[in-house]
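It is worth pausing here to work through a concrete case rather than discussing structure prediction in the abstract. The textbook approach is simple: state the sequence, then state the predicted structure, then interpret. We follow exactly that order.
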Amino acid sequence: MMKERNIGIVVTGFVFASMPIIMQLGRMFFATLSDFFGRKPFFMANGFLGAVSSLIYCFAHTPMEFLFGKIAEGTKEGAIWAVNRAYVLERSGGDWRSLVHLRTVVYLAYAAGGLAAGFLAVSLLYDGTLVLCALLGVSGFLLSLGLVDEKKGEFSVEQALHILDFRRKGRKFKIFLFLFFMMGLAFGFRSGYVIPYFLSDSGFSEEAVGLIVGAMILLAGLSSHIFSRISKVKRLILISGITYSALLTTLGFSHPTLAAAILMAIGFAEGANSIGQEGVLSEICDRESYGTDIGLLMMGLHLGESASLALSGILIENWGFAASFIPAATLYAAFYIGTFILYEER
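Step two, the predicted structure:
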């Protein structure tokens, strides 16, 4: 949409780079509050802000207007991701497989949207598609009203600051915070606008872009479901990580037809990667502060993602998409190698 409205790739990269920072600031604030006030209000905020951000994009034509949309969308994402993992963990007794099931559902939903997006953009245009997204946001708000929730306790600034105090976290937690930062750097070089823009520049139509992105995410959901039953998570972390890095390295040099196939394989590897990522969260986060601890780890991830998203447009414009995909593959290796060393099999 930004490409069609004549906004350059460098500016697009900077606009997209704003969202992880906004999301993370909102996420930390909401996660801390939710550990006291419960999770339900933030599910409701996600639906409401989803509708607001979609309507802003519908009327946006300048970088600043798209930035306002990213502010609303980032706050929306911060609200939902501040509470969804914590909500599931609390109701599953801390079972990491419940997080994998959550991720699988998210993948399947993203896939359905991705598969439909290209066709809707052609038949309803971007404006009509975004109005539909706004209606889905309203539906999310109404569904959230039916959630069963409980207040955690009385809020106090002292207790909130105690939970947020990074110094009280163990050495292992701090190392994983750095590893999540490295993972965020890797993701920023290939996330957001990068893949759709890559496919569009490779000559694919809007419908084809939607089909490829949707199939990629669908395969991620399928693999996360398949591998959720595996018992040797450490081995999966290493094998899926190596596969993911190898595929990304070749992507920028591939013929368009081969690139589409590689992207689908990347989706399958990404779903397997999610098993290790969710396993880490369930292993090192304290039961008393799931929301805040997950938020701290994700702070590293999203700060890294924001930095590399801002840089990605510059790299792509000057040296092509391979200049963005190769750093993504290399930096992700730091995450899966470090995680393989530190992760304790249950």
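Step three, interpretation. DSSP finds 13 helices and no strands in the chain. The longest helix spans residues 63-92.
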